[in-house]
Here is the input.
Amino acid sequence: MSSILRPEDLRPEEPASPTTAAPPPLGEALVEALDGPFHALRARLRREVLTADLVRDPTLDIAAAREWTTRQAQRFADGGYASIGYPRQYGGSGDATELPVAYGMLGYADLSFDVKVGVQFGLFAGSILTLGGQWHRETYLRDALTMRLPGAFAMTESGHGSDVQHLATTITYLPDAEEFEVDSPTVAATKVYIGNAACDARMAVVFGRLITGGTDHGVHAILVPLRDATGTPLPGVTIGDQGHKGGLLGVDNGTISFDHVRVRRRLLLDRFGGVDTYGAYHSPIRSQNARFFTMVGALVRGRISVGGSAAAAGRRAIALAARYALRRRQFPAPSGEGDVLLLDYLTHQRRLLPRIAEAYAYGFAHNQLLQQLHRWDDLESPDVRVERELETRAAALKVAQTRWAVDTVQAMREACGGAGYLTENLLTQIRQDVDVFTTFEGDNTVLQQLVAKELLVDYRDAWGDLDLLGMARATARSLGEAVLERTAAQPLISRMVARAQLRDEDGLPLERGWQVVMFEDRERHVLESLAHRAREAARARPEDAFAALNALAPHMLAASRTHTDRVVLEAFIAGIDDTQDGRAALLLDRLCDLWVMSTLEADRGWFLEHHRLTPTRSKEISARIDALCGELRPYVADLVDGFGIPEVLLDAPMLH
Amino acid sequence: MSSILRPEDLRPEEPASPTTAAPPPLGEALVEALDGPFHALRARLRREVLTADLVRDPTLDIAAAREWTTRQAQRFADGGYASIGYPRQYGGSGDATELPVAYGMLGYADLSFDVKVGVQFGLFAGSILTLGGQWHRETYLRDALTMRLPGAFAMTESGHGSDVQHLATTITYLPDAEEFEVDSPTVAATKVYIGNAACDARMAVVFGRLITGGTDHGVHAILVPLRDATGTPLPGVTIGDQGHKGGLLGVDNGTISFDHVRVRRRLLLDRFGGVDTYGAYHSPIRSQNARFFTMVGALVRGRISVGGSAAAAGRRAIALAARYALRRRQFPAPSGEGDVLLLDYLTHQRRLLPRIAEAYAYGFAHNQLLQQLHRWDDLESPDVRVERELETRAAALKVAQTRWAVDTVQAMREACGGAGYLTENLLTQIRQDVDVFTTFEGDNTVLQQLVAKELLVDYRDAWGDLDLLGMARATARSLGEAVLERTAAQPLISRMVARAQLRDEDGLPLERGWQVVMFEDRERHVLESLAHRAREAARARPEDAFAALNALAPHMLAASRTHTDRVVLEAFIAGIDDTQDGRAALLLDRLCDLWVMSTLEADRGWFLEHHRLTPTRSKEISARIDALCGELRPYVADLVDGFGIPEVLLDAPMLH
Here is the structure.
């Protein structure tokens, strides 16, 4: 590894012979690297879907924005793109991983459009495919995919936002009528924030507690017709319009409540649990808890898509701000040679370059997650462990990507000053739209605790129920050393670590093996200390149980965060290893250093507290960041070209 | 100081006799404490101005929003409030400090309204008062204060956003015609982001370079008529509408450019520099640089108001989120007794309580700044040192308050989950409106460097020009120990520090003296190390000068930040000391602990790197924060009542 990135290292190599094509520009090579195994589909979407049509006029009022969004979703369906990720008989390629690949890409365009198609073709049609049986698919899936049947995904309730397991809507079987009765017994059972509900949806996938003969079988999903052909709500269905929001004006979020609405028996999405005509319940999964997680888990694509879209929005904001910084000048240079380019200020480099590094880091991590999803899709038979790992990874990355996106878009708005605040320059709209990504498809704070729980489960691999108290008690059983399982590029990383461990404790910060060890060690220590505290909490008297568990929560957030960092680093390493173009790989290697140094700097309090960094080493890391910013500065244009964002989506007047 | 805050400590004392009035509720006592010396005016504004009329319907389109805002500003003027802070002959009380007191309060209401009145009555009318002479005041001030003469404040240019000293607009005196010619010689000289320009303004205070007989006298201001009585732009004046923005839709920001526009000689605002009929320049201030800073400094009220408004917006967001957390329940309690209140989760307390502590911290710091302004207003003769101190403080606090406000409103939006994203619940609109406060009235990154420069100036007290290179050279002259001057509550703080210094180095983190020493020591160390680096930078060869100074920038940001923290702590201590109600003082004392602990935790990397905290002590600080959150949890409702926000401005459906 060279210690200084020299321009000549990144010059295209001479073609081997006159007949060999010249290597692609650096930006293109980076696009291929960041697209990774999904390059073909992503390139196709760039070419065919991500056109100027998908830039919404941000001054449209709510009615016009909704109309525009519905029209774009219809065009998407008419173009045949809604079936991406569906089986061949429904017009897709049969590769289910393509769905989140595609929906993540749409985050480069208008996010209302992204969310609207996500609701219709991802959540609504996706539920029919994954939760329904053959009959549901044959009866409804084609119409869902053409938008002849606009649908909603009615999970969240007013009283239970993030707490899906405790939904209050009831789906009660009435054997005499051979019908279900769907009901919202309380105001708190009202479905809220439901996309497509306020205007468009004719039908909804409704989640509620399935009750037969007085027995509650837990949360299930059922198709419920909402509106007739004229768009009028059906009897017993009350729909509210949630109106103006902080963003995503094109998405018609609404409330739905049900007053003893009768639904035919067949409409229950019964792949994981159904009722025969006499009211007898049957399910291929015995445990109610396992069944719940299987059902919710089948929707993991939604969470992956949301993370991917948010990350794409963040990259778009960076590209806008980076290009602005490459043309905007402020304050005279001391040399007297005109004003200084924004990007030449170290403070500005510090604002932009670590974000660029993070963009690549999360991009590679997202690709790893998609590959993990692909392996899960290909499983012959269900594997609970594999499935939980996938869900944990998806939740962890959704949290990281959406947090990063919101903060990044804001930082980029500010980096463009007043120009960034003008709506025509796109940033404020991206900011407003991406905001809620931290909340929907699982509130980030709740998801982080889920991730931490799962890490404890893995750590001990000996848990019964997911109940926090039970978990704490189980942790108490025993504790010991556990080696973290590497999530990507295993042999390569092992070699790096082996090399690093041969050195003394003052290993080089720019040595990848040392970096991996730092991340792994921090994660293990945080997790072990969490497990230790959980064991103590389990000893609490019942009346102190809440307080004891409550005190664990900040440690759970830390466990989730440190785990995610490690997974992202492994993905970054794997992504560089898979990069074909030597110049791109060299640049990415430097960028990975910057990402690691920034991550260490941000958490240097922890590393110092735990004697993992000496004060001298810690200060050295900050100096390294400054140096890396300077080294990477000449490649900023290439690096943002490498995001592969179609030019029409970066057409801001401040860049003219 | 008690180590645990007991409910009985905060119970109202028994009235001494039946005829003595009962003490006020804790919330009211906190309002009085936070209002401080400005209680009377603030209470009056609450009662008379901050009514439900000042809640803008967030779904208004841009045209309707502008109309609404102009109407509200007119009502404000009609009510006689525009003259707050003006001399008696213009209807005010003669106390100039009242202006920023009032405009900061308006941040509780709609921020478009706040900015609009700030432009008209603060910047436009304020420039006439402070930069003009007797004739300007008599001719224009009354009309400006009644809005018969709507005006703009045209400083920022397209090519020079934050770099006012290098404005390109020219104001050239033509002796034959006895007129000035105002001109925008380049596109970069176009005035941009000018509030009131797009629709309303008939006249503008225009900043440009004053030129007489070929000599450039630097930046001056002149009144330039923009539109005729029908609203049509006058010949040579080109006005653009900057249209839709990321927020503040009610403010009509526009661009203005001048094509050799002729203006009568008398319209030059000539208090600090004028031209006689023959074109001879005269000024009471000899140095062009000093004159520039005097002129810009006269506008310090604008910067103080902006910081105050942003902080008010942050407090309003906290009040909304805190009340939501006191009614919203999620996930069942382990005890089985229903769902847990959001505010009972430690993670949620960690999101809210440090923000509440910061709200009070910045509130007290703002009061101190206003008192400093008041002392400056009362000066018999100008004092450059006092003026620069005021400007430095205003810049430092503007940065801190606006950064805090943007981050806080966002955190509070997220703390309310999906409900926070619904426009009806106010948070997203506050968020969109407050966003640009980090950019206008001085971009935060630029201001922080200004603050650091001034700190170096103070530190050495031996500077010529404000030019960075010159400063660096001057720093190089000598370096030595310097004691930081305390900015508030001097004798009290000295006593606290003296007590703390008697103890060994493991002083108690909850002892105020120890806290002060930690903050002072950090500031001094950062400043000394910056001065040292500046000295080295001054030795750079001319061609390396930019690189050498550029490398200082991150240290300058740190110097600004650590200085601000110390000033805020001193203000917090003074604010508690001035609090009359014993219960309120006790609570504020705890809150100050929480603020200090949070501030130390956030920068614990630095304290550990510099051996100011041991790893053990550092971890202890995090534990203290958790404990303080629990201790303060029962008083959250009182603490947000203490912000003194009129109920009508907190009327969100999520709280019904």
Residues 545-577 of chain A form the longest helix (33 residues). The CA atoms of residues 406 and 435 of chain A lie 6 Å apart. Chain A is about 50% helix and 10% strand.
